Amino acid sequence: MITIQEIETKERSLLAMKRAKELGRPILMSEVEKMNHIDPLLFFSSGNEHYSGERFFWKDPKDEFIFAGLGISKQFQIDQSDDRFGLIEREWKEFLKDSLISNPFSEIGIGPLIFGGFSFDPYKEKTVLWSKFDDSLFYLPKYLLSVIKGQVFLTTNFIFTPNDDELLYKHIIDERNKLFQSLQKHHHTALPALLETKEISPEKWKNTVDAMVKELNRGPLKKVVLARELRLNFNDIVASEAVLQHLNEQQHESFIFALESNGDCFLGASPERLVKKNGTELFSTCLAGSSSRGHNPEEDRLLGEKLLSDQKNLLEHQYVVEMIKEALEESCEEIILPDKPQLMKIRDIQHLYTPVIGKCSGDSSLLHMVERLHPTPALGGLPKKEAVEKIRQVEELDRGFYAAPVGWLDYEGNGEFAVAIRSGLLQGKEASLFAGCGVVADSDSESEYLETSLKFRPMLRALGGK
Ligand SMILES: C=C(O[C@@H]1C=C(C(=O)O)C=C[C@H]1O)C(=O)O
Ligand SMILES: [Mg+2]
């Protein structure tokens, strides 16, 4: 049976083919339909046969935007460059020119949208750990399931080149039908057994922190974030959908993200927004300064009170507030910024937290703001450039996408980026987890070590560890 919608799709694909031939370049055709409820994690899992290695997932803390992407319609990637944010943005805009977008809905986050991220520092010496990821990597998916405030939409993206004929249209319909058939099946993947958890050079890491504290006392550096790695071994391949399922259950108050690339998968549950753009409004988060959670409500409250008045943590936090304020002031007419931090309490840890809202003037793009903000002193340090250079020099870890921006950008310039912390890289039967902490002049290496141990917990638990 051929539906009305299929007839419309056929007409549009003929138009896209004609346009591609006339203009002599690829043309995007994008269609949005409203769906009955589909669980986005089930949608992600159902892609494990045909789209493995070409999937992504995203969920914000309030479930306002949930995305699952299957297949790569077009990949945007850029290696080492001083202008990688601008290049991604310009390539995306260029690619969207003359496209045929059928989107009768007004919601943000449906239609053509790219998802991906950036490495923390493109100038850090590369190791094999991150060999499957470019310094900037974004996908326009073939299929995007968007759950926007509970409503479900499916966007299908197809690219027509000047050489395509009607066979491509037939292929589109067949593929889409197969995708829906696979959704009917139940997909449940179990996690393999965790055999070994290995901390990478903990003593050496503490020595680096000690040396950094001395250096911070001499100035002019004020803060440097230092990170370390846990390496895990399993008795079988770790499926990204199994870990995502756990993260979604265990860390629902966080941004949950996953990005597959060439067989590896980078994923995590981050509490930290870098920046969100919705029309002319920008939202950012200052998150720095940490304490453990209490074993009971009273102990938890006392730990929170102590954190709110702890000079070392308040200073760690203040550096972030000042930098984010300065960055937003450049693009915004008005800024709403509370004068004192509050607490953000999540499952394993509590943080000092200051939300920031900016009303932008002119045209400040999301990726421009990402560039301006990354890395904030919560992940890099202060001053920014010197801190990143210091990390490049002294940190043993190859951060890759850890602590860097991960998120989405739609065809109208709206989107959101989180800071990819509380994260890990799945590689077959192995996984690497990453955690860091803000080192300031009166840091103590043993407490910073314990702080990073808390920050490994969300990923460790999701992978079946303790
Ligand atoms: C660097 C991480 O976390 C960052 C560092 C914090 C700190 O040092 O207090 C707190 C929140 C995050 O901005 C991490 O989780 O790996
Ligand atoms: Mg800290």
From TrEMBL:
EC number: 5.4.4.2
PANTHER family hit by this protein: ISOCHORISMATE SYNTHASE ENTC, ISOCHORISMATE SYNTHASE MENF
Active-site residues from the entry: K223 (proton acceptor), E272 (proton donor)
Similarity field: Belongs to the isochorismate synthase family.
SUPFAM superfamilies linked: ADC synthase (SSF56322)
Catalyzed reactions: chorismate = isochorismate
Binding positions (Mg(2+)): E316, E451
Role according to the record: Catalyzes the conversion of chorismate to isochorismate.
Record-level GO BP terms: menaquinone biosynthetic process; salicylic acid biosynthetic process
HAMAP family per the UniProt record, alphabetical: MenF
Entry cofactors: Mg(2+)
Domain Chorismate-utilising enzyme C-terminal span(s) in chain numbering: 202-455
Organism: Neobacillus citreus
Listed GO MF terms: isochorismate synthase activity; magnesium ion binding
Protein name per its UniProtKB record: Isochorismate synthase MenF
Keyword match Lyase: no
Keyword annotations of the record: Isomerase, Magnesium, Menaquinone biosynthesis, Metal-binding
Pathway as given in its UniProt record: Quinol/quinone metabolism; menaquinone biosynthesis; Quinol/quinone metabolism; 1,4-dihydroxy-2-naphthoate biosynthesis; 1,4-dihydroxy-2-naphthoate from chorismate: step 1/7
